[in-house]
Write a structure and sequence with these properties.
Layout lengths: L7 H30 L4 H24 L6 H21 L3 H10 L12 H10 L7 H22 L2 H9 L3 H23 L21 H18 L4 H12 L3 H29 L1 H21 L3 H15 L2 H11 L6 H29 L4 H21 L9
């Protein structure tokens, strides 16, 4: 259950995070299959994935740096409207260049985590929606809601194939209908955001720069998070699905089932994060859980058969998301209240920018070989991040850690 100090606004944001997670789960798996069915090459698929991440980074930066001046509910309502337009755009367009533009300007998320412009505003609200001692636990429930719903969305991404067979519908058209559902979920989120209280709004801006007091620690963390995300960009869920399709000739319903279990394990594991962080601290929680998961990722990339590759992907997923609540709570705890939206943006924007470069490289690698080079490269880079993070920040604890 939620921490006892969590507010009604926190509960509302858990609902919207779940709704968006379900939409992202559908879109991230469906995207690779749909674009391949349209005849796009792996490089073109990688370019569209990269465009989604670049566009999200630009929007997050604008929202984060202006977050101390903007009304948070208005930002979230505007993001919901853009989500609705993105879904309709992917339904209507079938050519590469229009889809590339829509991907850049919209909110489509090709990964299993949240990399959209909703993120800095929601994180800033959540950081104030419970007592400091309950912050990591609240972030864990927030991520759990998104991950569980994302797992269900990944499973639901196999529905278009079943629908097409049942009603004799063109498979590509059935997959396009998934983006209509994505758009409708944007409307549901808007309805939920309208109910947020006035307590979510930021303090009046005093004319100070967005990161006047916490610039040093935020920029240092941003640089490290960028390395992690550059590695993660090789294995965003859409490209991981593409690798499974090419390496093992996996049908979409089977891939949907695998990603359902992957996301389910990742979701459940996040609840453990708060307990571990309370005992050993945020940074040690991030490193001690993330480093073994990257070893499993490398092993998945070299496995010769689908069962072995799936096994190591599942082992990785049981650990890989434990660092997320600890990381989010750590950043929020290290900066003052009025700088939290900017800190969330500045630490997440480089993540999106860095992860936007690697899908192009991964797409090029997959166009030449179906071997698991993207997984191997990702695992090595992310393991290097873990080591550097521990060396740099293991002794830097926020006051609430004691």
């Amino acid at each position: 259950m939620l921490p006892g100090t969590a507010t009604a606004d926190a509960r509302r944001l858990l609902i919207t995070r779940a709704a968006r997670g379900f939409a992202d789960g559908i879109a991230s798996v469906l995207l690779a299959s749909y674009l391949t069915r349209l005849g796009f090459t792996p490089v073109q698929v990688g370019a569209i994935v990269a465009a989604t991440l670049l566009g999200s980074a630009a929007l997050m930066l604008a929202v984060g740096l202006l977050g101390h001046r903007l009304r948070r509910r208005a930002v979230l309502l505007g993001a919901s409207a853009l989500m609705f337009a993105t879904g309709l755009g992917f339904f209507a367009a079938t050519r590469f260049w229009p889809l590339l533009v829509i991907a850049f300007a919209g909110t489509l998320n090709p990964s299993s985590g949240d990399v959209t412009l909703f993120l800095p505003t929601e994180q800033a609200v959540l950081a104030e929606a419970a007592a400091p001692r309950d912050r990591t636990g609240l972030f864990a429930w927030y991520n759990l809601a998104g991950a569980l719903a994302g797992a269900l969305g990944s499973l639901a991404s196999g529905a278009p194939d079943a629908l097409a067979g049942a009603v004799h519908l063109d498979v590509a058209l059935a997959e396009r209908l998934g983006f209509v559902l994505y758009a409708l979920i944007g409307l549901l989120c808007a309805a939920a955001y309208r109910g947020l209280s006035t307590a979510v709004e930021p303090l009046p801006a005093a004319g100070a720069p967005p990161l006047a007091r916490s610039r040093g620690v935020v920029l240092s963390l941003s640089a490290l998070f960028s390395l992690d995300s550059f590695g993660g960009g090789f294995i965003v869920q859409s490209l991981l699905a593409l690798w499974l399709f090419r390496r093992f000739e996996l049908p979409l319903p089977t891939a949907a089932a695998i990603f359902f279990v992957i996301n389910l394990l990742g979701a459940i594991s996040q609840l453990v994060s708060a307990r571990i962080a309370a005992r050993i601290g945020h940074v040690r929680t991030m490193v001690y859980t993330h480093l073994p998961s990257n070893v499993f990722l490398v092993l998945a990339g070299v496995m010769p058969t689908l069962p072995l590759a799936a096994l190591f992907l599942l082992l990785r997923s049981a650990l890989s998301q434990m660092d997320v609540p600890a990381r989010q709570a750590y950043v929020m705890a290290m900066v003052p209240r009025e700088e939290r939206a900017a800190a969330s943006s500045v630490t997440n924007v480089p993540r999106s920018l860095a992860s936007a470069v690697s899908p192009l490289i991964a797409g090029a690698l997959l166009s030449r070989s179906s071997y698991g080079w993207p997984l191997i490269i990702a695992g090595v880079l992310k393991a290097a991040y873990d080591v550097i993070l521990f060396a740099s920040f293991a002794s830097s604890r926020p006051a609430e850690e004691g």
